[in-house]
Structure formats: structure tokens, C-alpha cells
Design brief:
Blueprint: H1 2-21, H2 39-55, E1 59-61, E2 68-72, E3 76-83, H3 92-98, E4 102-110, H4 111-114, H5 117-132, E5 138-148, E6 155-163, E7 168-177, H6 189-204, E8 210-219, H7 223-240, E9 243-244, E10 257-266, E11 282-285, H8 291-301, H9 305-314, H10 318-332, H11 337-345, E12 362-366, H12 372-381, E13 383-387, H13 395-403, E14 417-422, H14 424-434, E15 443-451, E16 456-457, H15 469-472, H16 479-489, E17 494-504, H17 510-520, E18 524-529, E19 535-542, H18 543-554, E20 560-570, E21 578-580
Parallel strand pairs: 1-5, 4-5, 8-9, 13-16, 18-21
Antiparallel strand pairs: 2-7, 3-6, 4-6, 7-10, 8-10, 11-14, 11-15, 12-14, 13-15, 17-19, 17-20, 18-19
Helix pairs in contact: 2-5, 6-7, 8-10, 8-13
Catalytic activity: an acyl phosphate + H2O = a carboxylate + phosphate + H(+)
Protein name: acylphosphatase
EC number: 3.6.1.7
Length: 581
Amino acid sequence: MIKMREDRISVFRERLDKYLNLGINLLSLAIGCSVKVDLYDTLYPALSLVNNEIAKLNIEIQPREDVAVLRSNGDYSLVRRIYDISGNGVNKDELISINPSVALLLLQVHQSRASSPKEFASSIISLYRRLGSSPVRVRIGKGHSIVSTKEKAEFALIDFIGTKSGNEYLLANNDTIQIIDPTEDPGSYRQVATAVSNALNDLFIKGVYRDITIYPVYDAPIEDLREKLTRSFKEFSSKWDFQLNANVIQPRVNYLLMGATVVGTLDKEPPMFYDNIKAGFKILVTRSFGELSIISTYLTTHVDESIIDELERNVMSIEDLEKLKTKIMDSLSRPNIEIARVISKYLPEIGEAFREDEHIAATVDVSGPGIFVFKELAEQANVDVALYNIPLISPEIAKFAAEHYIITDATAGTNGAIAIVASKDVIDSLIRNLRGIEDVQPMVIGEVMGRGSGKLFVPDYITRYITSKSLLMKLTMNIDVLRSLRRQQVRCEKVRVEARVLGNVQGVGFRPTLRRQALSLGLTGYVRNLLDGSVEVVAEGCKEDVMAFIEWIRSSPVGSVQTINYMIKQYYGEFNEFEIR
């Protein structure tokens, strides 16, 4: 065992040395969406410092939304320009010639600017002054800011998109990461697939799945690695039948970066009906989240051997952690386009009004901010929201990562779960339509309490997973509110499920993990191993929670489920808790 560990660490350190020789310090790069400039501590305070000056410029910043939305006739142009961080090189005459309908802005700033709202504000206002001094009004449809550890790696990339108004919508987004799994090749297919899928997710949540074009954004310190990234972009686009425009210019500041601007069309009204969200609307997520805590913990264990010892004593073996990490990477590198097709079915036709008994009210991507996307949603819709379940992929790893300050918010991810807000009837229908999609385990985790000031009520155990005091202060932990919601659930339709699970499900920690998930959903019953190698599960509770439990079992993060056979039966009220037999 000791020899295996030494070999594992030796291989990882060889990889570190290899990339250090190429000018890449893997340990200095931010993993996944954690590369973004902090929204609450830096970005929003910086914007508040310059809002008055921006208001005087010929520039418009779209309200908080993760994607630019335009009415379009189906045709559009995209012109990419790259400037220094202060906007030197912005040409007024060229802006008049381009005459953009919207601009997508990507800033890569040094960490010294990214940690100070004042420094960050001084950077963006210089760029905005130059953009806003043109006779052409520049609308910033999406702004994305990321952090570099290299001073000379700063740049401002702007994709100017032009289109004419028509009878459909054009949606565009930009997202980038530096790396998602530092233990594998930065130019690998899975790294690029995850980066592009993360950008695509903000289109998918709006129901976009047609006419998608990828405009890659990437950089690396050497030409061979840039070429490998190019091949991975081509492989991903070909595999998933997306258009790829590989001719756009790239930053070339010799710093690892991968992502894309993505553009697609929508022939429905996008799910942005925030004013129609009201009390009783449910919140559904398409799968558990918290991917970055697992990947970050895996990385840290290979740097600090004492962490391995504690992990294996209290949580799981490093081998099991590696299997879980690999399973997550496979999921993250798979685009959520099938979910987009389902979402599209629940949107109004162009020009039609929202109907709560038929349509989705709003959607969000549970990625970089983790559960704080629900806080942003609550503020945007002027409602209060309560989450009575925080379905993490591995609560044990999330807790471990937070306790050891590996990650300050263990609910964060990349290319994460999609959250949907709609009436109960629509959510029930959605669950039926989402079942069967690979890696999808739809579950209801909360609901809208009604009009309010944008509060997000969460269970008090969230403090196990978030160590940042400034983040925790934005949450409301009121046990009486959550108990009230649970009492309301008592009036739900209760059922019993009897299931038999086949696959590699014994001797892998399947039963304890399953029990924790059942308890988090408020279910009672039992799980036990059978002599033929399968596992028997009996659970009782609200029908929507029982069905969420079944979907969770299908994609269990522990073991490997091949088949689950189950029957829904009459509720007996037989159990007081959920136990392992």
C-alpha cells in the first residue's frame, strides 16, 4: 500500500515538473469556475464604484444574466478584438463600422487587481471609457472576468456580435477556465470538452439546442500545447455535431486558458419570467453538485501526504476518491444538450404569454457560485427562496474539503447541474421527461416562499461545506422556516418504493451513501445486501422525493449501478427512520 502511494505521488510530481519546465505551474492555476473574479468580494463592489461614471458613457451593461439575449432574423456576424487591459487599441471608427448589437467581454486580470475592488474598478473603467466614447452605443451582454498569476498575461477580449431583429432569439455566452483536472494533460479532450460544455450550459438552461456555433478561446505557453488544444476543440465539435469557427484570433499571452464564446438560436420565449415567480413554485435540480470539492481534494492529497492519511482514516481511500473523480470528469465533459431539448418543450411560443400551468419560469446553472446562484435568482426575482435539501455529490468530501480549507465553498462546480423554477405541476411533468437522460437525476430541493427581499433560507448544516464568513453572511439559516416547509410536505402524496439494484454495489460503501441521500430527502425505510450481490431498497415518503431518490440511485457516485428494478406501491407508514440492515 505504501509503495502504491509513493508511486502515485511520484507520477503526479513528475507531471508537475514537466509542466513547470513548460512555464506552467499547475498548482498556481485555478480549477474550473474558481478561476473567476469573486463576485461578492470584488466584482459587484467594483461595479458599484464606477456605476455613476459608466452611466455617463455611451455604454450599457445588461442586467445580471449569464447569457446575452437578442431578437434576431437568424443571421449574425461576430468580430473578435483583443486589447490590453486598459482598452488601448479600441478604435472609434472601427466600432462605428462594426456597429455591434451586443458585446461579450472577457477580462483576464492579474491577481493583484482581482483581490481589490478599487484596483479592479480602475481597470474596467479605463476600458469602458474607451468603449463608451464612440458614437455607437455598446451594450455589454455578458461580462466574464478571470484571474491570472502572471502579470504580463492580462488582456481584454471582446466578441462584437451584430444581428438584425427578427422572429427568433439569438443567445450568446462566453466562459473560460484554466484547467479542470490538473492530474491529466491540460490539452486533453476531457479538459477542453468540460471547458466548452461549461460555456454551452448557459445556452442550454435557456432551452437553446439549435444552430450552435463554437468560437474557441484558448492559450498556452508553447505552440505544441496550443495545437493540441485546437485538435481537442475540433474533436469535441465533431463528436457533438456543433459548428466550430476556428479562425477567430486568440489572446497569445502564453498563459494556459481554454473556453469559448458560444452562439445559438431559440424559437421560443426564453425562461426569464422573474416577475411571474410566486409562492409555492418548486426548485428542481438535474443532478447533485459540488464537483470542485472532489477534484480539489484529489489534487491536494497528491501535494500533501498528511492529507491522504486523514482522508483514508475518516472518509475514503485515495483509490475510491480517484474513481469518483474520474466518474465526475466523464460527466463534466458531456454537454447537457438533451436537457436543453426538454426545457424548450416547456417554453411559450414567440410572442405568447407565460402560463404557470405549462411553462418554466426561470433557470440557472449551478456552477461557479454553487448554491449562491439561488441567492442571485431570489434577488433578481424579488422573492425569498428556501432550500430544504443541498444534494452534494459527496457530502463527506465536501465537508473534508471545507474543514481543511481546500475550497471555501464546497458546493461549487463547473458545467454543473441545471436548476429549474416552475409550478408543481410543471415540475412533476419535467421530472418524467428528464428521466432516462444520462447523468440526470432530477430532484426537488426547495421552493419559493413568496415576494421578499431576496433571502435564501438554507439548512444550518451548510456551514459544514462553506468556510467563507462573507459568503455565509449572505445566507439565512432559520430552522423554523424550513420546518414549516417540511410540515407542508406532510400533505403531499406519499408512496412506497421497493427496488432491487444490480451492479457493483456491495463492498464499495453503497449502502451508507444511499442512506445519507435518503435521509437528506426525508425518506424512511431500509437498504440491505442480498446474497446474489444485489441490493434491496425500500423507501417511503413524498412521491416527488421518492422518485428523486430512484434517479439518484441510477447515477450513484459510489459503485456502479447497472440496473434498478422498482415498483411504486401504497404507502404503509411502516418505518420511523432509514436504516442499513
